[in-house]
Amino acid sequence: MTRQEIQKRIEELGSKQQFIIAEMTRLGFWTQHGEPIPAELVAQDAALQKELSQLLDRQRRFQSRDAMLKEMRQARMAAAKQRRIETKQRREAARKARADAWQATLATDVPYLGEGTPAALANHTADPDRLRQVGLPQFESPLALARAMGLSLSELRFLAYNRAVSTVSHYKRFHLIKKSGGKRLISAPMPRLKKAQLWVLENILSKVQPTEQAHGFRAERSILTNAQPHVGKDVVINIDLKNFFPTVSYGRVKGLLAKLGYSEALATVLALLCTEPDTQALQVDGKTYYVGNGSRYLPQGAPTSPALTNLLAYRLDRRLNGLAQAFGYVYTRYADDLTFSASGSGAGKANQLIWAVEQIVQGEGFVVHPDKISVRRKGQQQRVTGIVVNQKASIDRATLRRFRALLHQIGQTGWEGKTWGNPAPEADIQQVVLGYAHFVQMVKPELGRSLVASIRALIQSRPDAALAQPVEPVPATVSSTATNSAPVARPVKEWWDVL
């Protein structure tokens, strides 16, 4: 055996004497059949010596206070380190479990769409009976809604997410000049959002019928059908609602959809798809950010906005129609234009009617525009949504003369530099002119057909119309796409109490 092997063997046996006895036994110098007492005594002695050595070593260490404290500190530090390792492992495992659970949730649900949405998105209680009564499709979850819309759940989340700050805008915004000289903000949805909104319009909103008094944005209804009930009346009263679309907040849209039977979760998703806040474009380090400013409301330019306002004005129409009948008037509404007309004794109650209308409008969360109340009696030109209604539905003669003059100028010098009305910045002048001709055709079919034919001939002979380019808002640290109108009124009723 080598020296190292001998030393290792002594350590294993516990003492040198034990090693000697073991070797003597192995080599035959110590027989197993001899007296066992000496060997046992040697073994016991070795064990006792080993234990005594350990006790003496421990005694020496404990005799030194500093050494003892150091050992205790080291023991505590080692235990604390082990606990930290175990705690870190538990937390990492819990974090991973939460992350996995969150990813699993995102694959099947929409638990969060911005500040203030989690509680609403957690409520999946719907009213199936109400949905069947109204004739609306039912969806068990946002995932089912996304599939019905032809979207992935992540796409639906992207379109509906209420971001305070974003590098992406779902709308292209520009201003139109009003006849009064102010500016009207138009928010045109980008293609993906517009496609989703058109689906909501076709599959949900268009299935709910507004009141008979509503003529705007409905099939088989028009500005002509809105004007016809007021033909030949002694008095015609026109009242405009101020900031009609901005008055309709996200909460009112959500309340309408919940009232129709959808769960609060689905009502939240659909309301977010159909609303937007005022947005400020800012540039930071050459990158454009879109910062939301204020609460969400119906954008003027989204295909869902007119239908939503018709439904949200359901109770307004019912109350105003009842008021009109009580005063002997006929009532119709085209978007934000309210029209009342009467003959006989009712014509003398115009002031009382207007006062009562203002009270009802305010109670329903809308605002009457104080500068756009018109009372026209016989002997004055009476107009309803652009149509003259004194004796029959007709077009204003002065406007027709100006339109014919415009067509003559186009025939002489071409389309460039010509305008009509207050079109959008990107509007095609040819289509704008054709649109007015079709409007004339709706009221006066024979004259309208003649004008349409003349315009088409001009397009063939002078196809040089220049398209106006859209005027994009310039990002700046102080510019905002918010309208320059006064703050809009908010409804005094609960968000869900809309019908």
UniProtKB/TrEMBL annotation:
Q: InterPro entries per the record?
A: GrpII_Intron_Splice-Mob/Def (IPR051083), Reverse_transcriptase_msDNA (IPR000123), RT_dom (IPR000477)
Keyword flag Oxidoreductase? no
Q: Which PROSITE patterns match?
A: RT_POL
GO molecular function annotation:
metal ion binding; RNA binding; RNA-directed DNA polymerase activity
- What EC number(s) does this enzyme carry? 2.7.7.49
Looking at the record, the residues that make up the Reverse transcriptase domain are 157-389
Which keywords accompany this UniProt record? Answer: Magnesium, Metal-binding, Nucleotidyltransferase, RNA-directed DNA polymerase, Transferase
Major enzyme class:
transferase
Q: Which reaction does it catalyse?
A: DNA(n) + a 2'-deoxyribonucleoside 5'-triphosphate = DNA(n+1) + diphosphate
Q: Which family does it belong to?
A: Belongs to the bacterial reverse transcriptase family.
Which PANTHER family does its entry note? NUCLEAR INTRON MATURASE 1, MITOCHONDRIAL-RELATED, RNA-DIRECTED DNA POLYMERASE
Q: What is this protein called?
A: RNA-directed DNA polymerase
Could you tell me which species this protein originates from?
Answer: Fibrella aestuarina BUZ 2
